[in-house]
Amino acid sequence: MKEKLMEAAVELFEEKGFKETSVQEIVEAVGATKGAFYYYYKSKEELLHDICVSYLDDLLCQQEQLLHEPEKSCTETLRAIVCMVIRNIRTRKKSARIFFREMRHLTDGHLSEIRAKRRLFRKRYEQLIREGIARGEFKPSLHAEMITFGLLGITNWSYYWFRPDGRISEEELTDIFIDFILHGIQRSTAEGSDQTNEDADRPSGRAE
Known about the structure:
The protein is mostly helical. The chain folds into 2 domains: about 1-40, Arc Repressor Mutant, subunit A (Orthogonal Bundle); about 45-185, Tetracycline Repressor, domain 2 (Orthogonal Bundle).
């Protein structure tokens, strides 16, 4: 019953919002009573807390598995984690939307555990960047902490606009993000030279 209550709450919170959803609506969705609800949860806020924790625990578990694949380079691991976060937009999109949109309704008592888990996810990311710098895969001038915040900003908010069933696939979006993260958007000198050579070889189209 507890799992059914959480599943119903995910649907309702995502559709209507946390504040606009009542406990009565949640129990009606699963054919239960308020007594059953309060047997498992002290409040609606506690249920929201459990939804957020469940979402974070799943991400942390997947992240840990990817970080413990020693045969992969830091660059490969970085790509795998970015892809994992994007894939979760499809597999757990509603929970992600609730987490980012409704977490503001949690009080400090319920936020402390969530903040600790978010910090752990970020610190693991940051350690990967530091390790990549130490191995010579990433530029030594990088500020690992700031790069980590940037990575999180790029990937975390994809849930708001990315459509997995659209014209860009999860793998393609991952490649776009990784190329942007690793190489930026400025054309390299080599690319510029190649383009110049191509332009020189191409007929101008003007009459002499």
